[in-house]
Sequence to fold (371 residues):
Amino acid sequence: MSEVHVARRSRLRDRWVAAGNEAALVSRPANIRYLTGRAVPGAVLLLGPGDRDTLLSPREPAVDGRAGPPGDTDGLRRLTLPGAASDAAVAAAELAASEGATTLAVEEHDLTVARHRSLAAAAPKLGLSDLGCAVEQQRLVKDEEELAALRIAAEIADHALGELLESILVGRTERHLALELERRLMDHGADGPAFPTSVATGRNSGLPGHRPTDRRVEEGDFLTVRLGARYRGYRCQLGRTFVIGPAPAEWQIELYELVFAAQRAGREALAPGTEYREVDRAARQPLEAAGYGEALEPHTGHGVGLEIGEDPRLSPVAMGKLDACVPVTVEPGVHIPGRGGVRIDDTLVVRPQADGGPELLTITTKELLAL
Fold:
């Protein structure tokens, strides 16, 4: 992967050099991993001046499993700071100035005001400008290595949920089920969960963003599960809703079918060139027509990759159009406080119709199972 990381940094360099900057400082952890394949708390990446790239960190960086052992094959210089309390961003600004740079583009959306002031104080002759979200924009379209990692992450999540559904659920707590799911993710090769696993039963399923409690699964409950696996840094998302007992109630069937129709409409809207808000509208419209508009969440999907909730956002106010090879979630849900709720979350990759349309990564059944 070292050649891939070199190419990514080169593309970014072309962008900030064209904007009149001599060097750039990347401080957001996911962006550093994207550009280097390495992740370590407190590290920053200095690009330039010239073609020299430097990873500064308070200790030796961990290496991405695909990047190979540390070395010079990726053209990346590594500097370990003497103290754990050292600010690598300040050290990077001082290094850029000492090597002749007069301008430095920084990720202002990641730096605190205090840290930005520290950079200016450490290198007062260095003109600071905003790199903006240049790296995040570059991360939108995934290459085949990235998509392969996402496929494996989705497969792991599918396996973990499938195994849980084969076990006895009645009487077990939400917290216990969530912990078991996360253990199964690890058993199947995940680096860890992509985000905190959510298990909601009965009335708790009517609470969006519910965190597992000691409530026990009971007959007649909706069981809503949201989980994801992290594999080689890449994260997927899977959400499903089931009914506990011999058969679902009529109201549960009606609510589920409504959310399923909305989720299917959102999935079918995924195509290169489609506006983000059009995908959101497709998923949102059936739920609004049924009277649930005010209870819906601000977005019905988002991008995934090195972060679970990166661009693009599929929302009514989102600006932009989908590209091919962009992985996104489609996750409309209806939550009725005090009663219950339904969520169906899938991770898909945008593909043109000529290639078969959107590629579904999470394949656990969306049939309303009675467990």
About this structure: The first strand starts at residue 23 and ends at 26.
